[in-house]
């Protein structure tokens, strides 16, 4: 069985490229402006807790991608009200560099969230532009 060419299915890059066709992307500058002007109902960070603790965007809600479906579904015991009550709100999804946020935004769309965008460049680009970052561990 040869897997290096991924003859068995789609490559991760192909899955992300398909999500990019379905999910609107905004720049970190656009995200910052929307957050400052109150246009975003929620900034959702889908990175892992260890990434979050190293720094995150002020006001973001942590929902690691591996738990996203459970956090976004109000019928589960893991539901996050700060997400489930925002089905029609403008949601900006962020990750480290923009791939996971595309996939997470596509998932939210499939769950009925109506105004979801991915922040291209992710937290790395946000940090590179020296935009505000919180670094307090344990703040979730």
TrEMBL record:
Rhodanese domain sequence ranges: 37-135
Pfam families linked: Rhodanese
Entry GO MF terms: thiosulfate-cyanide sulfurtransferase activity
Protein name in UniProt: Rhodanese-like domain-containing protein
Organism encoding this protein: Reticulibacter mediterranei
Classification lineage: Bacteria, Bacillati, Chloroflexota, Ktedonobacteria, Ktedonobacterales
């Amino acid at each position: 069985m040869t897997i290096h060419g991924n003859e068995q299915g789609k490559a991760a890059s192909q899955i992300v490229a398909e999500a990019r066709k379905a999910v609107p992307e905004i720049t970190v500058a656009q995200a910052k402006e929307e957050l400052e002007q109150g246009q975003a109902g929620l900034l959702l960070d889908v990175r892992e807790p260890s990434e979050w603790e190293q720094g995150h965007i002020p006001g973001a809600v942590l929902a690691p991608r591996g738990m996203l479906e459970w956090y976004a579904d109000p019928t589960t015991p893991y539901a996050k009200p700060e997400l489930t009550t925002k089905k029609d709100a403008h949601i900006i999804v962020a990750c480290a560099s923009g791939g996971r946020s595309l996939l997470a935004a596509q998932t939210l769309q499939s769950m009925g969230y109506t105004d979801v965008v991915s922040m291209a460049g992710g937290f790395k680009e946000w940090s590179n532009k020296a935009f505000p970052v919180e670094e307090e561990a344990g703040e979730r």
